[in-house]
Design a protein that fits this description.
Blueprint (H helix, E strand, L loop, with lengths): L1 H8 L7 E9 L5 E7 L2 H9 L1 H11 L11 E8 L7 E8 L3 H17 L5 E9 L4 E8 L9 E9 L7
Antiparallel strand pairs: 1-2, 1-7, 3-5, 4-6, 4-7, 5-6
Helix pairs in contact: 1-3
Length: about 160
């Protein structure tokens, strides 16, 4: 995981790049790679550039991937309180369309705010580009009780200054 982040830190990144974070799975094998771009087309152009493929390909060739990266748009977030994030959990839901995904996110966000589990700090609701999946990234101050995969903050690379749009 360090090699991947080193490669990203040494790569010239376009202005459309915002941030990338690697989260280490508590199972010792899983990595959650969370990248943010101003728009999907910018990421596609960067990912298909042969120079970028060569530069970053060596660093990531040893990693197993379950398929191409999912492309999601942040729909909404809720912050329950300010605290240090010690764990992340994820959940995903299959949906029929973006409308269904938004409705489910709204329901979950309302539920989370009203009866938040102990230690929950924030939740971020993402909808896949095709609208057929809702992905929830939850931040926790303490180890969650539920038996979901846990991720620990590892390392990130964020743009130092906000990008003017």
């Amino acid at each position: 995981m360090s090699g991947v982040m080193d490669a990203w830190e040494n790569t010239r990144l376009p202005t459309a790049y915002l941030s990338r974070y690697c989260l280490a799975g508590s199972d010792g094998r899983t990595i959650l790679n969370y990248a943010q771009w101003t728009h999907s087309d910018a990421h596609r152009a960067f990912a298909t550039n042969p120079q970028n493929q060569q530069t970053l390909g060596t660093a990531i060739q040893g990693l197993f991937t379950a398929g191409p990266p999912g492309r999601y748009t942040l729909y909404r977030s809720i912050t329950l309180r300010e605290a240090a994030v010690r764990y992340f959990t994820t959940a995903s839901y299959d949906t029929e369309a973006s409308q269904t995904a938004r409705a489910r996110a709204d329901t979950l966000a309302t539920r989370s705010a009203a009866a938040a589990p102990s230690g929950l700090i924030a939740e971020h609701f993402h909808i896949s580009e095709d609208g057929h999946r809702l992905y929830v990234l939850s931040a926790h101050e303490t180890e969650p009780d539920e038996a979901t995969p846990r991720f620990l903050p590892y390392r990130g690379l964020a743009r130092r200054r906000p990008v003017a749009t």
